[in-house]
Amino acid sequence: MRGFKKSSAILLLAVLICCGIAKVSVQAARIQPYWDNADKVSAELTVSDTSATSTLRIVGKSGTSKITGTLKLVDNTTGTTVGKWDISVNKATCTEVKRSTVTAGHKFTLSFSGYVYDANGRGEYVSASDSK
Description:
Shape: flat
Strand content: over 45%
Number of strands: 7
Number of helices: 1
Helix content: 10-25%
Largest sheet: 4 strands, antiparallel
Radius of gyration: 21 Å
Structural class: alpha+beta
C-alpha cells in the first residue's frame, strides 16, 4: 500500500508540472483566435514619457473586402479617453499608427473592436488590446 501512495503522489506531481508548463507555453506564444475572415489582428501600444504610439495591424484573408472599427486609447489612471479613431478601409489590410500626448507615469490601454468583411459582405467581429 505504501508503494501505491508513493507512485500516486509522483504521478500527481508529474501531471501538475505538465499542466503548469503547458499553461506557460500557451501564454508565451500569444496565440491568436481563429477567424474566418482575418489572418492577424493586433494592437500595440508604446509609451515613452509623455508620448504614446498606438499601432493597429489587421491582415484579412483572401477575399477580404473591408475592415471597419474603432481604435481607442484610455488613460486607466484617470479613466479618461485619450484618443478615439474610427477605422474604415476598403481593402484586405489595415495599418494605422496614431500618436497621442499622455501623462508620464500613468497606465494606458489601447483597444480595437471592429469587423472584417469577406467578399460577400459578411462581417466577422474581431478585437485586440494592449496595456502599458
